[in-house]
Amino acid sequence: MTATTAPTVLTARALLLDMDGTLVNSDAVVERIWRRWAVRHGLDGNEVMKVVHGRQGHASMALLLPDRPVEQNHADNARMLAEETADMEGVVAIPGAPEFLASLRGLPHALVTSADVPLSTARMAAAGLDLPDVRVTAESVGASKPDPEGFLKGAAELGVAPAYCIVFEDSGAGIQAGRAAGMRVVGVGPRAGFHGPDAVVRDLTAVRVEAVGDGAVRVYVG
Fold first, then answer.
1. pTM of the model
2. What is the C-alpha to C-alpha distance for residues 26 and 40, in angstroms, rounded to an integer?
């Protein structure tokens, strides 16, 4: 892994949280849906899975089927979102996620996810997790991760400058988006360490958060 796994202390004024792979383990359903899609389009499922994490579906399709019309990708994405929202088998919380979210009550934080409102609501509920009050979903942005728009919008809604935000992400696209937004990034899980986060943890049991006064938040990682 390229990032440090040694104990790290970061100070911020807001935390921006990805959902899939960071708070919620939805890998089982993502694999089912996207491997079926790969078969329908004659693509290698293993190669497809290297692309899809972190991005909105239509953005992944644009990379995998570059000659296909954008409108067709959006229509296909809408169908897949409906499939994903109806399939919660195997969706569980990332270890430490309930305690991590509980520690953020009263502190500035937001969910920034490539899922839409129905999917993010269903997955957080299936994992037994409370939704943050501030949420940036697929409907809120014009560009998918790795574009930084979602994280910049989350920071703006919280009224915190990007440089004072910490992103929690698992995917290459998400980590790239956080970096592009000018934010520090904590990588969560096995995918994260290969994409240059500032620090990486196996799961959220290795993260502790505390308020330290004057609006600051201290994050202990590792």
1. 0.91
2. 22
Q: Which long-range contacts (CB under 8 A, 24 or more apart) does 139-145 make?
A: 144/55, 144/56, 144/58, 144/59, 144/114, 144/173, 145/54, 145/55, 145/56, 145/59, 145/114, 145/171, 145/173, 145/174, 145/176, 145/177
pLDDT one-digit tens code per residue, 17-35: 999 999 999 999 999 999 9
Say which of 18, 116, 147, 203 is annotated catalytic: 18
214 counts as catalytic: no
20 catalytic? Reply is yes
Determine the distance from the C-alpha atom of residue 140 to the mean position of all C-alpha atoms in its chain, rounded to a whole number.
15
